[in-house]
Amino acid sequence: MGVKGLWELVAAAAEHKDLTALAVEGMRPTSGPTMLYRVGVDARYGGSHWQKGKNPELRTLVFRLSNLYTKPFAVVFVGDGPERPGNKRDINVGKKSHWLTTDMKDLVVAFGFDWIEAPAEAEAELASMSQAGLIDAVLSDDGDTLMFGAVAVIRKCVSHVLIVALDIDRPYSSSSRKEDGDVVAIYRASAIQENPAVQMTRGGMVLLAVLAGGDYHKVCYGLFKCGAKIAHGLTRYGLGDALLACVANSADDQSFRVALSAWRLELVYLLRVDPRGFIGQRCISLAASVPEDFPNPAVVRAYARPLTTSPDNITLDDSFGRIMKFDLAEIAALCKKHFSWDEEELRKRMRTLVWPGAVLRL
């Protein structure tokens, strides 16, 4: 899920780097222990195939945790909270915590990583933490983290070997990890705004969601027949920043609707005329088809001002970013419990998945 077409539009601004190099280069000296590169992870990234059942899902999480564990990162996982939307893209996703959440949290904490729960959506909470400087980057495949305002997003850090490792009988070793590589794409808000081929602010990304479709639209539609290319052209006119200004400067619902009405007139004009050629064509029929009630005020607010915790109230451990903590005995106990590994299998998996990271973090 996420903003339709966003990753393709911002691809030119991406920076590609080895994950370990990113972690090492991001370490910073302080008056005390060295500050590690701090990464926030959408908990759903740890396991993206809920329908496969408990054990395969937790196996995936263990392999992904071990991958992060072997890098000098400080990691906090953020889970969705009770106020997350119950419906996305006309699909009922439910508001209750997933039945695997407790087991996931236990594994995350055993590996020495932090876990917090957002009041609503994890993507929005992570973006807020990024803006506040509590983390250096967000690890997520969901473009909403960028749209919500994250300063930097790391995408696709998990190598192919960690995906195929769902087959518990498949051999896994450090050599197979190396062959696959850990090159990631890093999307920085500053680069997205400054790259000549992209030139998109956070307001532009919100505009893209409103026009081309995102999680809060039914069946992913925004403005019917307005694709990402047209929406991107409109961002060059500053229409996205103007939309955020409508939200920020409206004292109540009535003034917000009045502001959106004036904004809609500007949208129609730009579609019909394209005065500076940013869209690349005049979209006369599309301009004529813009509904009088577009955009939906609730959808605009959901994108522009998602529910998040005030940064002052986020309860990260005081040692976050400085102390590498882990519990080898608990990792072994949880793996034995969830995967029914015998002693020989447990030793093999601990040797290949856990010991390299333990040596790094001693």
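Next protein, fold it too.
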Amino acid sequence: MQRLVPSASGQSYGTRCKKPVAVTVTSDTPLDMEACAGVVEVLVKHILYQRGQIPVPFDALQREARLQRSISQAHLRDAALPLNARQNSVSRKEEIMKHKLQRKRQQWLCKVDKFLLNFNSMKESLHNELKSGSVRGVKVILGSSVMTGRESYFIRLPEDYSSQSSTQPAKPHNRGLKLFRNLVTNEALLKVMNQPCGVQRIWVMVQKSTGLKNTTDHTKSLGANTTAVNMIHRPEYSEHQRTTKVEINIQHRSVSASMDLTPTVGSGITLHNLGTKRSLYLSSPSVFHSCSSNRNQGMLTCTYLEKESDNGTSDSDRHKMLPPSLIRNSDCTYNKSILKTPVKLYKEDIIPMVETPVHSSFLKVESFTPSKQLASRLGTFNLSDGTLDTTWYQIDCLISGFRDMWNLLKSAPNSNTSINHTINP
């Protein structure tokens, strides 16, 4: 993977874009908690490399740390060899430069080990929070502090990722290719990535729902060299107005299909008891009912009980002229129940046993006015402010970026020959 090279005609870093850069990435397969954790981890690694916080890609950095012991032993063996021309001043200078490079390399490898240790601790803490299902998004901040960040990258997760289950085999490679294809083809994001950025401190914050409290209270061991760190509550967090903001919205195609279901207990079920006849009809404002064919109208055929008026005439003609939804007489009942739900009669109460999926076109009930619909849904309204629905938590782990070891020695004399001799002893 190659780093994006800044263009020569790029603007200076002082002219930052105040408007957030929005990037949308859509996955063909549903993303569960494990898949979202993998996507967030890959994005954080990509941001750190593209913004110059690590000198090489993350995988290459891990390989360098893995080879630290073998390379160090090779340097020790090479330093123990006797020199035939120790009195020669040229050989003496080469030996001094060689030991200097070896010392710089050891310091650089120590930074690599510290960086990987902090990154793994942050990753484990992030995975634990994602397993709770209350995480809305993850933010990576580059800057001296959380409040005064120079750049922020907010990764917004799908809303229903916690309820998804992986029904197809995971293909992280294909998902990663599509992810980076969307990132590198966005022109606004390329302008941000092309701006020069020095080595900064790296902060990771988590946006969680306020309804659930699943934060890690104590540090606990998760492996031989990894520990999960604490979460710091940051309710006062707000971004600086000069911070360059990037929002990456991750979406997926959910496998759940929408269908109309009959109501549950206490939701729009009304019982009419007129003598020995009982009828159950649906009166829920959440379902739109229409009748589009004669076949559907036949299903709703109802018979009206005739009532003799005072003068002896029948009121059946008057009832037949009005639709059932407009008849408010308690004398009217249905011979055929509209709602096909098995019920259990116990002490004159109706208890729905099974919720049967029905098609909305088969039902036709009275229309609801806006005032009735508002009154029926008052119990489900959330009257709290939108900003109070979520809160911020900071992962108590400081990650510092670092430069390449070879950039520190460009001004040293004969550095090329010494470096080659050090790499290939």
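About the second fold: The longest strand covers residues 135-143.
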